[in-house]
Amino acid sequence: MLKTSLQMAFKVLLRRKFFTFASLFGISFTLMVLMVVVSALDHRFSPDAPQSNSDRMLFIDRMTIKGPTTESGGSRVSISSAGYRFLDENVRDLPHLERVSLYSDDRRAATYIDGVKHALSIKYTDGAYWQIFDFDFLEGGSFTDQDEKDANPVIVISQKLARKLYGETSALDQTLVADGTTFRVIGVVADTSSFQEATHANGWAPSSTARSQAYRDNFIGGYHAVILAKSSSDRPLIQAELQSRIDQLQVPDEYAWSESVFCYALTLFEELSADQFSDYTGEPRPTKLRLILGVSALLFMLLPSLNIMNLNLSRTLERSSEIGVRRAFGAQRSSLLGQFLVENIVLTLLGGLLGLALAAWVLHLFNTYEIAPGVDFGLNFRVFAWSLALALAFGVLSGLYPAWRLSRLHPVTALRAKLR
Amino acid sequence: MLRHVLRLAWNRKTSNLLILLEIILSFLVIFSVTAYGVNHWLNSREPMGYDITNVWRLYMENSSRDLPTEERLEKERQLLRAVRSFDVVEAASVMHYPPHAGWTSRDGWELGDRELRTEVVAASPEHPDVFGLDLVTGRFFEDADRHLPYQPVVINRHLALEAFDTVDCIGEAIWQPSEEAGDIERDEGDDREKRVVGVIEDFRKRGEYSELQSILFEPYFVGQHEEELFFIALKLKPDAGPAFEEEAHRQLTALAPGWAFTFSSLEDQRDRYRRRHLTQLLTGGLIAGFLILMVALGLLGVLWQSVTRRTVELGLRRAKGATAGRIRDQILGELLVVTLIGMLLATIVIAQLPLTGLLDFLTGPVIAWAYALSALIMLLFVTLSGLYPSWLASRVQPAVALHHE
Questions:
Q1: B342-351: pLDDT as tens digits
Q2: Å from A59 to nearest chain B CA?
Q3: What secondary structure does DSSP assign to A236-253, as a single string?
């Protein structure tokens, strides 16, 4: 049955080439755009190096201190990254976790070689950072907690920076002067993407080597934490425990004006939702993000779907004798409905294939021209699966109504329709 | 003629309904993209209110927050003196925060029965030497201002009109400490009365594609201000290359260990800002363009099919004496009637948009331009997709059509 439907579908596609072309053009373009978006999202959440363990990770990136609301409705609010001291005291010993790493905001710095400036974006961190994230080391290795304790001036740099600074010669053991500190390069890692904030930088040095160590006393501002849970199902427990600690938190004297403190440990998806839709508290809104992504995809497919529906429906006449004959010989409406739906899905899948090829080309352009620093969008199995799902959804969305209309044609009317 | 075409369109209402929906959606898509583009275009024609030729900014990050205030202030004075002493520097001023830095400071309060919302910029008296000044009335800050019993402020035309309905507002108080209502996030602020000493032309700090905005300048006196010094704006001599950076960086780092310094050219920042916006526009335009092309192809197909189906009707009309031209006009006319109805319905939707208040860039001129442009594009592409089918219709031979029956 399905085989006949498939054969029919191809025959029909070849019959009117212009219609097939117009449909394929619309379908492939629509799916191409959706695939590019899916690929960008996948890149952000991807469980590939350096965040292979992303399903066990939680990130603390934001902290809010809010004062009491005045009569006029205003209130004093301080929003920033978290403070080292807060993280050190409240996050390190949370239950169910395997490791915690604290890393700084990206610190801008510059190094000059022969009068040419090279911009650095340095994260100051500890040894655990390198165990939580599995960076791809091209040369050398990382620093350890011991290096951090001893304030060993060592630095890990990105491949791109290594090339810029030292050309083809090995970067290992070269010196790098940044902000007045002379670092020794001990490792070179593959470039990281700006879509993955926790690992995006071009230099990584031990926290203790920062020029000023005042950050250690900060309650708010300057530091982030990444938590590696023992298993992904432990994450809600960790989140709940952090929440209860914050509820009992004793704020330092300088923030005596504070009424409430907000700080969340979030998964990558929750984090994106907080970035996009949260108010000052930074509370995640994952459901809203999911809803908005879904609704926008549907809205984007609406116009192309209408277009395909229109094209399909306008071929009623062409198909009417076929429908009439089949109905007259006893075909069920449902089998006709199935047939037309299959035809449309075959068409969509063909368009999806074309769209995939187009998307691969567009992504290649994006990567070549580096639309955002360090991004490397790709088509992998996950993207492919999502694309397939989207193509099927599109096929059903655009095929159901015309198929329903066609299958309802009365056999007598259908047979009487004039043919050319 | 019109009534006739309307009736014909009505007779085919089921198949026209889908076309109608398509037209409405396409028009909405075209309108949103053109409105976005028109908004950019109109804004880019407005004067900026400042000049950033050869202007750089120096971002200074003091990571030792625990420095006693007096020491910090002394350091800040030294740093500014050092920056001024560089050969290539023509003028240096403080601006919190400079354009394209991605930082803003906002404030809002009530003045009488008016709700004021404005961006607040702290600037030192040398500000006009670096950025130029487009003064309407009054003056900019002077060093002597630090001894005034009130806080002098300079506001732009937009804010002056919003607060006082006139730019002649020198000496007026724009904020008084007694009226603390609605005072948001002013933590380390000056609690003296703010009195207007100067009005400047509009000042679009957020960039050339941004809307007009309210802006209020407060004086910043280096070495006296409670707020830490973050940004120094530098006007360089025209012949200064980027090479000055390394030497300046070395000297500053030697002077103030524990501080991080970053130089960036505002012109570069502006170019990046432009590129980012143009990329967005281009992407939106391309996607909308492809959507429209797709709809055009679809319409072409649908009309083609419908002309084929209506051979008999069209042949009969030819036999009764209608010219080929009239047949062509009929087919195009039917399509245009549906298009116009669709555009009318879409217009009703568009008319609701400003009421929602979600898209604040939809001002009168933007809507007018965008509407005219998108209507033109819409009619053009619909006519284009109707040309071939209507030509096909006009070539139907009466004999063939009647024979067909």
A1: 999 999 988 8
A2: 24
A3: HHHHHHHHHHHHT----G
